[in-house]
Every structure is written in structure tokens, then in C-alpha cells.
Design a protein that fits this description.
414 residues; alpha+beta; Beta-lactamase; 5-stranded antiparallel sheet; two-stranded antiparallel sheet; 9 strands; 38% helix; 12% strand; elongated
Length: 414
């Protein structure tokens, strides 16, 4: 397209100014005057964009801005993952932490970036949401209660069970503080392996065998005084559980720092009825616990709390080797596995453990029975409670085992 005449004249004049030798002086003067008198060219109006073009450009700009905000929001959620602020410990046990709550952080993120979403692996509980309360298994509780001896029997059962999958429980006076007998060795073993995890105790270190820790009743270490100077820590804790060695228990208690130290630790675990007041064998029953305390402790172990996985597996492996199998194990069928510890001081006996069924179900239970000294009916009652519970989870109803008269023991076997 050819240029307009004013534009051609302007370009020619500019060439003459750039090189005056190409034109006579008079022509040069005329060119200068014409340039000075020349008015600026009128401004051309920009072309008006169509409606469709404006809409397309607006959508493109919005998409770019939205994409940038989404990237920023994703980065914030990656760096400030809300679930990192959640505490696995109960609120009563964990100190209150200052700072931004996960719900507040997520609310702020939604205000700044309305399109932000959590990934499938993240979740934030609503500010006022609460976990559903565990439900008691009333049907099983009624079955267990029906097993209690009729008057004038002086045998009284105390039981607590927890079903792992359903998170349901049975409480038959299970929160009653009772003489612990040798079941006190369960929390002592947990305290021992917790000290191992902390590096305060080495499994192969030698624990001295002295007259101060020698105890009668169950166990073989009492007969090694004067023959053997020490035992490894691992062998000592193993003998404490497997054959309920009282001397080994006193050695472990001494190594852990004594009664005050282990009681402080029990309290920190939420065991409100569990205390050590004397060395074993404690035939007077001054050491205390409750079925609920023992189940809650074993539940923490099952859930991976208190101990490392290695120490948890080692402890449960030792408890599976417990020699006395006259209580809870008698209610189980072949194929079931139990990690447990018994206790017996004549006037009370009990058993607590974790039971794995062949069908894959797992439950935790503790049963005690107070009785006239060495009354065998108490042992039969615990066996029947164990059998009833096992069959309830299996889906069948067993016939109670009849009580067989036995000659009382001459002395208790702690």
C-alpha cells in the first residue's frame, strides 16, 4: 500500500536535512521552513477489539492467575501439612502446645485459596468433632456375669476385655484395685524394656545376685546365691516372666531404681491402680493393680506405644513362653496364641494377656478371682470366663467346665 503524500514529503525533507550537499542552499532553506511549519500528524485511533476476543483474553488471564494460586496453595499444604500438628497422645497426657491449630491453619488456607484441597492421605478433624466413645459388649458381659458362683460361694470374679478390631470392651468390676501377685511383673517388664530403648540398660549387662534380692517362692535364682555372682539383664527379665522368678523380679526392680521410680513411671502411663510397695513374693498382697490397668497397658503395647517395635516383639515373645498355663490358656482352642502372665498368692489369682485367634481376631483380657485360700473353684471360674469370651468372638456358645474338687495346696505359688 502506497504512503500518503504528506508522509512522502516528510521523509524526503528529512533526507535532505541529513545530507545538505544533495540540494541547493535555497531548497535546503525551504525544507527547513516547511519542517518548522509542519503540524504533527493526527493520531490514529487503536482498533477496537471484538467481544469474543476480549472474553478469550479474560479467560486466559483468569486461568493463568488461578493456576498460579493453585501452585502456591499446594506448596503451602506441602510445607505446612496440617496432620503434622496432630498429637497422637491423649489430650490429658500431652501438654498443651502453643501455636496455630491445624483447623485454624486449614481455615486460613481456604480463605486465601478457596480452590485448595487436601490430598487423599491428609485429613483435618473438624474443630468440634469427637471420636465415637467405645461401646461395651453387653451380650458378652451378661454371659460372663452368668458364670459367677451362686451364694454362699465367696469367690468373686473381676474381669476386663478389649476387642481390638471393634474397639469394644467388657468391664466386670475391672477397675477395682486388687492384690497384683505376680501380674505386677508385666508392668515391671515394660519398664525394663523402656529403659533398654532409652539406652539406660543394656541387655547383656550383668545384674548382681545378692542376699538383699533373694526371695522365696517361685524361681531358681534363689538357689544360686553363693554360686553365681550375676546374671545378664535379658536372662533375668526372661526368668521373671517365664517361670515367675521372684528373685529375678527383685533384681529388675532394683536395677530400675526402686519402688518410687517404677511407681512414677506407672502413673505416667495412666495406670491409676498399679503400685509396687514391697519386694516379691508379697504374700500379703500390698502390690496392687486392676484388670483394667493391665488391659490398658497391654493395649498400649499392642498399639506400638511405650516400647520400640523390637522391644515390643521381644517382650511378647517372652510372655508367650510363660510356663503356668492353668488359667486363660485353658479356655482357648488349638491354634490360638497367648502372650500372658499369671499371678497367685493363695487368696487371689489372676491372668492377663493378648490372645490371637486362628480366625485373625485379637483381644486383650485380664481376669482375677478372690477366693478362700487356694479354693480350686476360682481357677475353674477363670477358665470358664476365658472359654466363654473366646467362643463369643468365635461365634459359638460353650458349656461351662464343671468344678472338680481338688486338695488345697500346702502353700501358695506366687
Amino acid at each position: 500500500m502506497s504512503r500518503s503524500k504528506p508522509r512522502r514529503d516528510r521523509r524526503r525533507n528529512l533526507r535532505l536535512l541529513a545530507d545538505p550537499a544533495q540540494a541547493p542552499a535555497a531548497t535546503f532553506t525551504v525544507v527547513v521552513q516547511s519542517l518548522e511549519e509542519e503540524k504533527p500528524l493526527p493520531k490514529t485511533k487503536p482498533r477496537r477489539q471484538s467481544w469474543a476476543r476480549r472474553v478469550s483474553l479474560g479467560a486466559l488471564r483468569a486461568g493463568i492467575v488461578g493456576g498460579g494460586l493453585a501452585v502456591v496453595a499446594g506448596t503451602l499444604l506441602t510445607v505446612f501439612t496440617p496432620t503434622r500438628f496432630l498429637d497422637s497422645q491423649p489430650a490429658a497426657a500431652a501438654p498443651q502446645k502453643k501455636g496455630v491449630k491445624p483447623q485454624e491453619l486449614w481455615g486460613l488456607t481456604q480463605k486465601l485459596f478457596p480452590g485448595a484441597k487436601l490430598s487423599s492421605s491428609e485429613s483435618v478433624a473438624a474443630p468440634n468433632s469427637t471420636a465415637p466413645a467405645p461401646q461395651e459388649m453387653t451380650a458378652l458381659k451378661q454371659k460372663i456375669a452368668a458364670l459367677r458362683p451362686k451364694a454362699p460361694s465367696k469367690i468373686t470374679p473381676y474381669a476386663y476385655f478389649w476387642e481390638v478390631d471393634s474397639q469394644q470392651y467388657v468391664n466386670l468390676a475391672g477397675n477395682q484395685a486388687l492384690p497384683a501377685a505376680s501380674t505386677i511383673k508385666i508392668p515391671l517388664a515394660v519398664a525394663f524394656f523402656q529403659a533398654v530403648d532409652a539406652g539406660k540398660i543394656q541387655l547383656q549387662e550383668q545384674l548382681p545376685l545378692t542376699q538383699a534380692v533373694v526371695a522365696g517362692g517361685a524361681g531358681e535364682m534363689q538357689y544360686q546365691i553363693g554360686k553365681v555372682k550375676s546374671f545378664s539383664a535379658l536372662e533375668t527379665v526372661t526368668q521373671m516372666i517365664v517361670i515367675s522368678d521372684n528373685t529375678a523380679t527383685n533384681m529388675i526392680l532394683t536395677r530400675l531404681g526402686g519402688k518410687a521410680e517404677v511407681n512414677r513411671r506407672f502413673q505416667s502411663w495412666g495406670l491409676n491402680h498399679t503400685t509396687v510397695n514391697n519386694f516379691l513374693p508379697d504374700l500379703e498382697g500390698t502390690n496392687k493393680t486392676s484388670p483394667q490397668d493391665l488391659v490398658n497397658l497391654l493395649r498400649k503395647i499392642h498399639q506400638g506405644e511405650l516400647l520400640s517395635l523390637k522391644s515390643r516383639d521381644r517382650l511378647l515373645g517372652i510372655m508367650r513362653e510363660t510356663k503356668t498355663r492353668t488359667l486363660l490358656p485353658q479356655g482357648l482352642e488349638p491354634g490360638a496364641v497367648i502372650s500372658h502372665k499369671t499371678g497367685d498368692i493363695g487368696t487371689i489369682l489372676g491372668d492377663a494377656g493378648i490372645i490371637d485367634m486362628p480366625n485373625g481376631r485379637r483381644y486383650i483380657g485380664a481376669v482375677f478371682a478372690t477366693r478362700p485360700y487356694n479354693d480350686p473353684a476360682a481357677r475353674t471360674l477363670i477358665q470358664n470366663i476365658s472359654r466363654t469370651t473366646y467362643q463369643h468372638f468365635k461365634g459359638t456358645t460353650p458349656a461351662p467346665k464343671p468344678v472338680v474338687a481338688e486338695k488345697p495346696k500346702a502353700k501358695p505359688s506366687p
